[in-house]
Amino acid sequence: MCQDNARPQNHSLEMGEECLTLFKRKMKRPYNALHMSATTKNAKNPQVGVFWLIARKIIAFSQPLEHVHVVAGAQDSDFGHDPLWPKVVQRFPKLRGKEYWQVPRGRVLYRVKEELFVIFGPARVVSNKRLVAQIAREFNLPIGQYRGIADMHYDPPPADLDD
Fold it and tell me: Is residue 79 a part of any domain in this protein?
């Protein structure tokens, strides 16, 4: 029996078919946003940073694009998932005992030469156009100037790596 709050912890293959179907259905519903940035969120300016998808919310830590330097052709925040994880767990106590990489997450950066914001994340997240658009709105990305790209770095590792 699948619980309503089920979500894949590692790979979809570990879930029953019923749970996987429920998870896919939930992915189609809009996410709410919770901005936990240390900087003031400026509604007019694009942001770069990291995010998690937790309890139907986009948990974002970001900085305005104009506050970050260009390094190797990209503008990216200094925020990292690992150091920010304790703040997320403090806000969502049910996550105690989980690692930051066990929850769907991603990063938004800006490629200067292409004039393009890139939303990196797991394939199942960036293939959902509606969810990518919601992440883009949370980071104030200009319409038509962003793209979601799957990055296996953001996919949870296979369960057998823990053995």
Answer: yes
